[in-house]
Amino acid sequence: MEYPFRIADNIRTGTPIMLVKISYNGIDGFGEASMPPRYGENLDTATSFIERLELTQFRSPLPIDPILSYIDNRQTGNPAVKAALDMALHDLWGKITGKSIHELYGLSNSKLHTAKTISIETPEIMARRVTEAEDFHYLKIKLGTTDDQAIIRAIRNVTDKPLYIDANQGWANKEEAAKLIDWLSTQGVIFVEQPMPKNNFDAMEWLKGRSALPIIGDEGIQRLKDIDNAELFYHGVNVKLMKSAGIREAYTMLTTARKKGLRTMIGCMSETSCATAAGAQLGSLAEFIDLDGNLGVTNDPFVAFPCINGEIQVDNSPGLGLKSPAWDTIEPYIEN
């Protein structure tokens, strides 16, 4: 990663990635599992899961639904590696039929205004990172520190762009969180993402009713079952392929949330262009876009949709839309 990535409860300089290729009749489908350590998956668990699968029982990758159901039901958990297999099968589906994933789902290829994420540093460094992100229309600011107001003041000294706030469960006291949100509502903030611990249901329900800004669930929204009562605690949901086990369930989560009147966001982990391209295929279902996980990566082996002036330029390329998967040139990164 170009810069250390610090949020309320951890910091890292890279992310374990597993890239997957599924081949059929000379056509390759690509997928990716991004596994930040805080979510419990790693290269060993992903490898173990894949080794338990018997994909040769399927004579063709189409239709993909029976294969994805088999993969998901084979073992609980492991959403990131399931997402990698889901992406690869969707990529195959699109390449075999000559259609993009968004076309296969009946969606548009709208230009997507993604936010640029600014992770936690000193207020001065965060303000400098903001000036480096001058091409972006929206900024996502990580908070959850004792300097949260100082951070926002420093940022407001260098930009008046609208802000998304992500506390990553970093605020422990609901009354203090409500007061801070009151203040943030005067600072050009659009919403606050996961302000309090995801399992503190009483506090989240209280805060949702009291908040001066919309609250978006992230850590509290993992898979489809979490949409059932999401409106009790959140005004909207952040859907990520690495949480949802891939494109198929993310599509259902987003459409279900919209039917329930929830605001929708599609986000990402630290990823290569493979996974962010997959997320972008569902972008027209989301009000808020946070798909910049590939932009801070220094060793991205893929090229997909360009991001120009903060807009992801999604086109109708078949499958995920990868332009030049450099599969044979990938060098594993090993941290000493």
Automatic annotation (TrEMBL):
Taxonomic source organism: Olivibacter oleidegradans
Entry's EC annotation: 5.1.1.-
Cofactor note as given: Binds 1 Mg(2+) ion per subunit.
Recorded family membership: Belongs to the mandelate racemase/muconate lactonizing enzyme family.
Domain Mandelate racemase/muconate lactonizing enzyme C-terminal: 123-214
Named cofactor requirement(s): Mg(2+)
Top-level lineage group: Bacteria
UniProt-listed SMART domains: MR_MLE (SM00922)
Protein name according to UniProt: Dipeptide epimerase
UniProt keyword annotations, A-Z: Isomerase, Magnesium, Metal-binding
InterPro entries according to UniProt: DgoD-like, Dipeptide_epimerase, Enolase-like_C_sf, Enolase-like_N, Enolase_C-like, Mandelate_racemase_C, Mandelate_racemase_N_dom
Residue intervals passing through the bilayer: none
Name of a matching Pfam family: MR_MLE_C
Top-level enzyme category: isomerase
